[in-house]
């Protein structure tokens, strides 16, 4: 299959989201919004939150499964199963799936830290597994997703997976151990930017701006800065220098950030998130070996 035929192939497939939280919703909203598949091809299930499933069904027109029998049918009939529970629930979910899955189904995991090897251990056999690390910006088609494959994923399944995640943003295929680094940079990354925005808005308000003005100016500044890096192709450091007049306001601000070890803080945050992904994976692996 070539990439151009993939959306058509996807359009005839049944997708099942096992776990119906923020990340599952972000991907579903992106897939439907980008017209990659019809809502009726998408099934979603969770552990027990019927209200959440009703909300998703009303909002997107997706099919939901509440009873155990309906869940089993949805899983059995799916061509692609997205694993989207929290890491702490992953071992239980995979144990439930172990006797329900068939060899021709494609598994797509978004679970932080969970390795392909551990998924196969918990399922009791090798399968076609796509391990990914997306982010919530997939909701608006601006996601950034790292992807790795188990050995048995075919070229056709790779093209399909990449088309799904490209529909909701950009993708990069990496060696599996690097997915933890992707988690530190772009999986958790939106939260760092939101955190910075929270502080910029709060500071603006503290110094006299209205909340609306502080918010609008901050949002446009972040948007403009990201777009400048993307469209000019210039390095962030060069663009930063162009804002920073000698002895001016920006220099004073950057010196203040340096005094608070801004770069070190960000570097350590990314490294710690990557390390935490490894810890989450090791916890699940321990459950697998029990
Ligand atoms: N939120 C984010 O920005 C990102 C999250 N991820 C990964 O996505 C996964 C989900 O994260 P969120 O959507 O944020 O979590 P969430 O808590 O919003 O959603 C988890 C979902 O899994 C369901 N679930 C848990 N145990 C279950 C079971 N036994 N059977 C059926 N459903 C079950 C819950 O009911 C809930 O719908 C995590 O593994 C996380 O590492 C990956 C990239 C980004
Ligand atoms: O915080 C977490 O563990 C998940 C994985 C990446 C973003 N959110």
Q: How would you portray this structure in words?
A:
- This protein is an alpha/beta fold and 290 residues long.
- It folds into two domains: 3-177, NAD(P)-binding Rossmann-like Domain (Rossmann fold); 189-272, ProC C-terminal domain-like (ProC C-terminal domain-like fold, Orthogonal Bundle), CATH 1.10.3730.10.
- 57% of the residues lie in helices and 12% in strands.
- It is built from 13 helices and eight strands.
- It has helices at residues 6-11, 22-33, 50-60, 68-77, 87-97, 116-123, 155-166, 179-187, 189-206, 211-232, 236-243, 249-259, 262-289; strands at 15-18, 42-45, 63-64, 80-83, 106-109, 129-133, 143-149, 169-173.
- α5 links the parallel β4 (80-83) and β5.
- It is globular.
- The structure holds 1,4-dihydronicotinamide adenine dinucleotide and (2S)-3,4-dihydro-2H-pyrrole-2-carboxylic acid.
- The site of (2S)-3,4-dihydro-2H-pyrrole-2-carboxylic acid has 4 residues, from α8.
Describe this protein with a few key phrases.
290 residues; alpha/beta; Rossmann fold; ProC C-terminal domain-like fold; 2 domains; eight-stranded mixed sheet; 8 strands; 12% strand; globular; disordered N terminus; binds 1,4-dihydronicotinamide adenine dinucleotide; binds (2S)-3,4-dihydro-2H-pyrrole-2-carboxylic acid
| Sheet/helix structural class | alpha/beta
CATH class of the largest domain: Alpha Beta
Shape: globular
CATH homologous superfamily heading of the largest domain:
NAD(P)-binding Rossmann-like Domain
Structure annotation, total helices: 13
Order of helices and strands: HEHEHEHEHEHEEHEHHHHHH
What portion of residues is helical? Answer: 55-70%
**What are the bound molecules?**
1,4-dihydronicotinamide adenine dinucleotide, (2S)-3,4-dihydro-2H-pyrrole-2-carboxylic acid
User: Strand content of the residues, in percent?
Assistant: 5-15%
Q: What is the typical, i.e. mean, pLDDT?
A: 95
N- to C-terminal distance: 40 Å
The overall number of domains is 2
Instruction: Let me know the number of strands.
Output: 8
- Low-confidence parts: 1-5
Which architecture of the largest domain does the CATH hierarchy give at level 2?
3-Layer(aba) Sandwich
Instruction: Report the C-alpha radius of gyration, rounded.
Output: 21 Å
Numbering strands along the chain, what is their spatial order in the largest sheet?
3-2-1-4-5-6-7-8
CATH fold descriptor of the largest domain: Rossmann fold
Subcellular location: Cytoplasm
Enzyme class: oxidoreductase
Pathway: Amino-acid biosynthesis; L-proline biosynthesis; L-proline from L-glutamate 5-semialdehyde: step 1/1
Main location: cytoplasm
């Amino acid at each position: 299959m070539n990439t151009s035929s993939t959306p058509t192939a996807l359009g005839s497939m049944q997708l099942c989201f096992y776990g119906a939280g923020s990340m599952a919703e972000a991907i579903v909203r992106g897939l439907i919004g980008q017209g990659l598949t019809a809502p009726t091809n998408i099934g979603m299930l969770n552990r027990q939150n019927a209200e959440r499933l009703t909300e998703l069904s009303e909002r997107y027109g997706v099919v939901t499964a509440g009873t155990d029998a309906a869940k089993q049918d949805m899983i059995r009939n799916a061509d692609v199963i997205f694993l989207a529970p929290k890491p702490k629930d992953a071992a239980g979910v995979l144990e439930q799936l172990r006797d329900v899955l068939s060899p021709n189904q494609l598994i797509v995991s978004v679970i932080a830290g969970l390795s392909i090897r551990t998924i196969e251990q918990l399922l009791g056999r090798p399968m076609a597994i796509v391990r990914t690390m997306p982010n919530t910006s997939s909701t608006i088609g601006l996601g950034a997703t790292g992807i790795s494959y188990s050995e048995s994923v075919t070229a056709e399944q790779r093209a399909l997976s990449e088309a799904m995640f490209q529909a909701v943003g950009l993708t990069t295929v990496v060696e599996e151990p690097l997915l933890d680094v992707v988690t530190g940079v772009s999986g958790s990354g939106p939260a760092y930017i939101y955190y910075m925005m929270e502080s910029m808005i709060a500071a603006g308000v503290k110094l006299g701006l209205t909340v609306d003005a502080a918010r609008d100016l901050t949002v446009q500044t972040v948007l403009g800065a990201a777009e400048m890096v993307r469209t000019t192709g210039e390095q962030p450091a060069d663009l930063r220098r162009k804002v920073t007049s000698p002895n001016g306001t920006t220099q004073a601000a950057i010196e203040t950030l340096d005094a608070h070890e801004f770069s070190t803080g960000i570097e350590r945050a990314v490294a710690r998130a990557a390390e935490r992904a490894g810890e989450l994976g090791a916890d699940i692996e321990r459950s697998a070996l029990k």
